[in-house]
Design a protein that fits this description.
By secondary structure, this protein is α+β, with helices and mostly antiparallel strands. Helix content is 31%, strand content 38%.
Length: 289
């Protein structure tokens, strides 16, 4: 089968040529039939999306979670297989993928959110505010491991208590102030924070983490404890496993969907079992490094 590598120069910037050189070198070493689809701008990427409706390839997202998400939404409903070369900022879905897949191709669940699809995680509240803040997440002057921490520090400097939301899940309705709400298909978000260590990408369910509204210092402690899943024993954290969830508010609020922002006053989340085929080739990725 042919491999189609989707490379966005507007994301990779000065690393783009080196990544392309490595793709060519390793693909020829593995004797792959391949093509590199290079996009200079987001507009060009959107224009070329029609290619996927007529192809039957292993289409590779060369980048991070946001790149995967944009490509994923072009591939759903086609005959293509998704794969990942992780050269992005967070690479959170890749972390989960390496834990649950050895090699080969398997069906993977998706979360549908207001007509869009997520493969890793959807978050609301202060997490979405942090993840959507371009001043930190893609700041070239801040080392990658510190970007999420920098966003946390800034947003807690202006943080109040939480965001008032109504959450409907598993027959329950909870309306209150929330620090954050996270729906997970994968296990990590925010550049390696282990939000949902029990998540599986093929069990047909999403894991929900609700964090009560709380004061600033306690909230910072809870969020930072997520790095090693320390939040799971905190009484302010409530967890559910479900196939559907709805969030509403009196005014529009932000979500972050696999690294991509979305604004609405109502979000409907629903699992799509086996929504896409995913390929994982650990040896190819090892050679890419």
């Amino acid at each position: 089968m042919k491999y189609l590598y989707v490379v966005n120069r507007f994301n990779l910037k000065d690393r783009c040529d080196t990544v392309i050189e490595n793709l060519r070198r390793v693909s020829e070493e593995f004797r792959r039939d391949y093509e590199i689809l290079l996009n200079e701008t987001p507009e060009e990427a959107k224009e070329k999306a029609s290619i996927f409706r007529e192809s039957e390839c292993v289409v590779t997202a060369v980048g991070g979670d946001g790149t995967i998400n944009l490509l994923l939404n072009d591939l759903v409903g086609t005959r293509n297989i998704l794969s990942v070369v992780p050269v992005g900022t967070g690479n959170d879905f890749y972390r989960t993928m390496t834990e649950v897949m050895k090699s080969g191709i398997r069906e993977v669940d998706l979360i549908r959110v207001n007509g869009r699809y997520a493969i890793n995680a959807v978050c609301f509240g202060i997490d979405a505010d942090i993840a959507n803040d371009e001043r930190f997440i893609h700041n070239r002057f801040i080392p990658k491991p510190l970007r999420f921490h920098a966003g946390v520090l800034y947003h807690f400097a202006t943080f109040k208590k939480g965001r008032h939301l109504k959450v409907e899940c598993e027959g329950q309705t909870i309306e209150q102030e929330f620090l954050t709400v996270v729906a997970s298909n994968g296990r990590y978000y925010g550049g390696g924070y282990c939000i949902s260590p029990d998540s599986e990408i093929g069990d047909g369910r999403m894991e929900i983490c609700l964090a009560d509204g709380m004061k600033r210092l306690k909230a910072a402690s809870v969020l930072l404890s997520m790095k090693d899943a320390g939040h799971l024993s905190n009484p302010a954290i409530h967890r559910y496993s479900t196939t559907k969830m709805t969030l509403t508010a009196d005014e529009p609020f932000e979500a972050n969907i696999d690294g991509e922002p979305l604004l609405s006053d109502r979000f409907e989340l629903e699992m799509v079992p086996g929504g896409i085929l995913l390929e994982h080739d650990p040896e190819f990725l090892r050679r890419m490094r």
